Amino acid sequence: MDPTKVKIPPMKDLNIDNITENTITINSQGDDPRLTYLMERLVTHLHNFARETRLSTKEWMTALNFLVKVGQITTDVRHEYILLSDILGLSLLVDAIDHPKLPGTTEGSVLGPFHTHEAEEISSGSGMSSDPQGEPCIVVCTVKDPAGNPIEGVKVDIWETDSTGHYDVQHADRTGPDGRCIMKSDKNGEFWFKAIVPVPYPIPHDGPVGQLLKLLKRHPWRPAHMHFMFEKEGWDHLITALYLRGDPYETSDAVFGVKNSLIVEFVPAPADIAAKYGVPEGTKYLKHDFVLVSDKETEKLRDDNALKAMQQLGRKVKLLNHLPVPDVD
Amino acid sequence: MDPTKVKIPPMKDLNIDNITENTITINSQGDDPRLTYLMERLVTHLHNFARETRLSTKEWMTALNFLVKVGQITTDVRHEYILLSDILGLSLLVDAIDHPKLPGTTEGSVLGPFHTHEAEEISSGSGMSSDPQGEPCIVVCTVKDPAGNPIEGVKVDIWETDSTGHYDVQHADRTGPDGRCIMKSDKNGEFWFKAIVPVPYPIPHDGPVGQLLKLLKRHPWRPAHMHFMFEKEGWDHLITALYLRGDPYETSDAVFGVKNSLIVEFVPAPADIAAKYGVPEGTKYLKHDFVLVSDKETEKLRDDNALKAMQQLGRKVKLLNHLPVPDVD
After folding, report:
1. Among A14, A18, A58, A311, which would you mutate to test the B interface (most chain B Cβ atoms within 10 Å of its Cβ)?
2. Catechol dioxygenase N-terminal domain location, by residue (chains A, B) (predicted)?
3. Less Cβ around it within 10 Å: N or C end of chain B?
């Protein structure tokens, strides 16, 4: 803290035109080149935003108070900043950058704010929803590599709302996890479970993010979907969801998650399927095959995309731990 | 909320390249053109930031959790988001945009997070600090227009730390406002008060903003200063501060507030001054003349600056309520 021990280039008389370079300079004394780069781009965009909009003091104060509210409504089971990122399209973008997909492999979708770490592991064929009002269904899946080989022992996290469109954590009187489970794929890459047919629901809009949506004349609805997350060492972490075809919000998802390749159909189980899985004929049935990409392939694709994008942007960077930093050599 | 009643252009299969235009489109349905413009620029910069840095999911999550903490440590008397804006140079920038100054008039400086609305009005000659450890001083001021005419009845808000470098609100056991007051300029534009000589102090660095400063190897110190805020109908609201010459942090203020024209010197009061103000000879004495700009002149200057800047940036905008909005005609 002794000012004689920090080497800061002298600054004074900062104004609209010189504040950015000065802030970047003072932020560039650390020994983490990635942080230096992130801060340089952050300050540049933040300042350019203010300069391009001629942001007023009143607007600035309104924005800061909004950000306070987003933080203060956040709890262990409601992450309003993830929600804000979701409705601004940032979550979709970051996932697309970080988890590029090869053709023919399962695309990613938004995580959303309702994943928890308390789901219980169930075995194939078990149920993951206790909601008697929901329409029963069975979901039969495989998880394979791009060549079609099954992947055994993948940890699969699955979560969905109840029939009222609420996740378990949204009920104040809940007694434990519901509408969520963890499964492991077997040696054929298979896992299947009983659940309820997903319904469309509005994202929580009783907080600051809901107020923003209202100001923007946007609805808060998400089309009916079921979340899936896949994890196994050596394979790229996959966060995705399956969406129901024909949902009224299919092309206006409040958080931009829908992809054509992730749209599915529940069909009435024919007699042979019903018998195989021990459910009444006509029970809603979904079959889906997921395809994972290896860590290595994803890493290479991510690096290639990053370098290509940086080149197109004319930025002089190199990759350090697979992330761009300024190339000062 | 009925999807048939909202006209949203269909969206699906959003990716790195098309997410920005789609987000902007869905955000542009409102009837407030200023909000539409702010959101368009916000989303553009936010997305470009992620694309230019190839922001990873891990970094994104770290950033969102940081923003939650900034909101959650904020209270009525500690606005951590103002602090964050201050150390990123945004506060200085917004003030410079919103309150442009004509040559020869008093420049602005950062508000900081410690202004409150509970200071008591005192009459000229009264004291505003009860700290017996502080070095006593008298501050003798005038407030005038650019032509040198005194401005009567200006509400002046003044605040400073105690001798330990803390504002009253930073003491858990405080009983009321201290080190802050409100005064009114008299018919000669004069006001004077007793205070203590300001000391340098670190901005609160026990929270997330302090952690960020540490990561960036920046110190949290502000040079010794006294805050002033001027308010009178017809005159541009002036938020400023006076800084002590020779302070060790004069050229490395953690929040970028120092300007040459705002650097002052406390001198020992000579015999005549001491007699005039009824203090012992040699008491530290500061004389300063503030110059306000009229609302109208500021508005014109702000408009001119905005249009000039927009033209230089090549942005097709017009001013609505003195703020840029897209010019769609």
Report:
1. A14
2. 32-102
3. C
Strand partners, A143: A290
Give the DSSP per-residue string, B170-232: G-TT--S--SEEEEE--TTSEEEEEEE----EEPP-SSHHHHHHHHTT---EE-SEEEEEEE-
* Cβ–Cβ gap A96/B19 under 8 Å: yes
Copy the structure tokens of residue A100: 């590029």
Q: Do A67 and B71 touch (CB under 8 A)?
A: yes
- N- to C-terminal Cα separation, chain B: 31
Contact (CB<8Å) A249/B71: no
Checking if the pLDDT of A1 tops 50, the result is no
pLDDT at position B68: 98
Q: At what angle are helices B90-98 and A57-72 packed, to 10 degrees?
A: 150
**Using CA atoms, how far apart are residues A15 and A26, in angstroms rounded to an integer?**
15
Q: What is the DSSP letter of A270?
A: P
For residue B12, list chain A residues with Cβ-Cβ distance below 8 A.
250-251, 258-260
pLDDT for res B174: 87
Residues β-bridged to residue B268 = B284
- Find out whether A178 and A130 touch, Cβ atoms under 8 Å: yes
Does B252 lie at the interface with A, CB-CB under 8 angstroms? yes
Q: In angstroms, rounded to a whole number, what is the distance separating the alpha carbons of residues B284 and B154?
A: 25
The CA-atom distances, in angstroms, between B14 and each of A95, A118, A225 are 11, 31, 17
CB contact under 8 A, B94 and A50: yes
**Domain residue extents for chain B:** 1-55, 80-293
Rounded CA-CA distance A97/B58 in Å is 12
- State which residues of chain B have pLDDT below 50: 1, 3
CA dihedral of A101, A103, A106, A108, whole degrees rounded to 10: 40
Please enumerate, as own/partner, the contacts of B201-206 that have beta carbons within 8 Å and a separation of 24 or more: B201/B161, B201/B165, B201/B166, B202/A1, B202/B165, B202/B254, B203/B83, B203/B86, B203/B87, B203/B112, B203/B254, B203/B255, B204/B78, B204/B80, B204/B83, B204/B113, B204/B170
pLDDT score recorded for residue A6: 53
DSSP H helical segments within chain A, as ranges? 19-26, 33-53, 57-72, 80-87, 90-98, 208-215, 271-277, 295-313
Task: Express each pLDDT in A287-320 by its tens digit.
Answer: 999 999 999 999 999 999 999 999 998 888 899 9
